[in-house]
Task: structure prediction
Amino acid sequence: MCQTSLKHAIGYGDKPEMDGRLVPDSDWLIKNCTIHLEIQRKFMIDRIYDYMIRNRMIEEGGCILAAVSGGADSMCLLEILRELRTRAGFQLRVLHVHHGLRESAEGDLAYVAGYCAAAGIHFEAVRVDAAGYAAEAGMSVEEAARHLRYEALESAAERWDHEKSQLSGSAECPNSENSLQSSCAPCRIAVAHHLEDQAETVLFNLVRGSRLKGLRGMLPVNGRIIRPLLECSREEIEGYLRERGITWREDETNEDVRYARNLLRREVMPLLEKINAGAAQHIATAAEEAAETEEFLKNETDRAMMACRESQEIREPQEIRESQEIRESQEIREAKEINCQNSEIPMTPIVISIPRLLKELPLISRRVVYEVIAETAGRKKDLRDVHVQDVLKLAQKNGNGKLDVFAGVRVEKVYDKLIFFGAAQTAPEKNLSGTDRPISAASRRWPMYAGEYSCRVFDFDGNMASVSRKQYTKWFDYDKIGAFPSFRTREEGDRITLDESGRSKSIARYMIDAKIPAELRSRIVLPAAGREILWIPAGLTGSAETTRPSDSGRISASYMVSSRTRRILEINWEPAAGQPGSNRDIEQQTAGSRRPEAAGRGQAAGQP
Result:
């Protein structure tokens, strides 16, 4: 920009000079400073809008639920979204979560509620007991607060989705993360993480021992969650609010360096910025490249997994079947009898070809083993590189061998194969007589094997008096589900709808509230339709001979039978059936004009 243009841009114009200097009067200075601030404000809004479009965070006719605590970051997020909602054509609501940890939190709630009322924005507040939940679940208060906050956000978003589906007159709305071409697209949840938060997250993951995936930091879009401010600095955010005359609330616990995040923010990051003022930006840029690299490696890992993974049909030489390994192959055959999809803990062992595994680059081999252990265990938490290395050492050793790895996962090497057994595939306990018995026969128990269920589908005449009232036989509207359910253990994000208003609860929280023992929660097999759990059967108490329900259990309100139901999915839990060694599997039958007999053993069971 030339000198003359620069003078005009900052407000000096052609004012007379004094001692060779341009001297603006106060009116001119105020006017042009105001213009300058307005240009900055519009530039920031445009930059965030462009970022949201590039990352497909919004669409016309969509809806965004903003998580607003009252702090500077979330108030900036709210103000930006308020500015953009007309321009981008989306609906906006606000949810405030009161964690019950600070006296000043009441002021935070009142401030956000007042701001939304003045701005004409739908506001909702949810109160949770983070300290109580932390003590009950055995986690830090910080982790408990985060868990409850996102649970509340997810529940509110689901209720909004339910409202939209009711208004549209459609029982079903697209629920894919990429389904953004319709007004029925899932509600997005906007959170206010910014540039420094991203840098702190990467450092936190790095120092606690994260893999490359953790070095990605936070993604701009992760399921429902969107982060519009991820490219904005804290300085920009606070400057924007000051220019707009918007105040914010301060959380005094943010100064407490006993929390790891606060220690990074208050002490570590300032030291790094003394080395390079752009440290946060450089770390965030590295996180973007790590995300791209992880995506590439994920594709390579998927390719290698396909190459290394074998059918569960394990065909061994005759001499092996006559040796000690015959017991191992029998376990595999017994597990195969359970015909059930399970994306968390497989109902059949996973078999990996050792020659193909070791042919891959070491990095890819490690990633394949990591993913197989995680799939077999049903979780990744506490899975470490040492577990992966132990499995690779077993693969490279001479002869056959066994290894207890992680979270109940057992790996057996049989010649040139690694066979991964999960906790749900282990043999049932033995009593003193040596006979099989259910887990903890003197205590409560739940379904641990898919084979304990039987299912069938048949036509329904709309007579609600005929609906099954049996404790362990439940009916569902098959056409609402749209597909035969899977039978699996819980996964992160699983929920169950509690009532017709769409109110729901996470399965993790439900199991805690139901006082299901922690060691059993990841082993209970449940019927599921996507992320919705259809039924959590009541636990049993008493002896193996005289069992009785210990509670009423719960079925999903989303798929309950009504007089308009045309086809019924009947699910029956038979606690005595389906354990390893049983020949029963789950069959799916659909009925046309006639009603078929029940599938599997106990054919008369559950018939209304």
